[in-house]
Amino acid sequence: MSKIVSIEKPTELSKEVSTEKVELSFVDDLKSYEKELYNGIDDLMEFATAAREAISKGVRELNRLNAVKKVAERIASDVEKSAKDLGVDVPELKQVKKAISAFEQQKKSLTKVLK
Q: Which of 27, 45, 69, 108 lies at a C-alpha separation of 20 to 30 Å from 86?
């Protein structure tokens, strides 16, 4: 036995319902994008706040180390003069000068990042 199936053209009503489903789908997409954008804005604000705080901490530490460096240079100069007068070698002078030099090198690149 064969079954007869009739294929009908879509009616105006079925076209209208289909169009409404598509439009509703776009509205749902828009709502999703709106939510994603607002969540992204919140995330960006958190990142910006964290970055500002990190930069502020970096600037404070850079200033602190500048003060340490100045004291170290002054004491190293005094020790160097005394050691020269006494004719002795102070290995720590070479080490502190190396640390000062390393700080100066890092300071150049960090100053650009922290400003």
A: 69
Backbone angles phi, psi at 3, to 5 degrees: -105, 135
Determine the Cα–Cα distance for residues 93 and 77; give it in Å rounded to an integer: 9
Residue 30 to residue 47: CA distance in whole angstroms: 25
Pair 72, 100: CB distance under 8 Å: yes
Task: Give the predicted TM-score (pTM) of the model.
Answer: 0.64
Residues whose CB is less than 8 angstroms from the CB of residue 92 and which lie 6 or more positions away in sequence, other chains included: 79
The candidate with the shortest Cα–Cα distance to 103, out of 78, 67, 74, 76, is 67
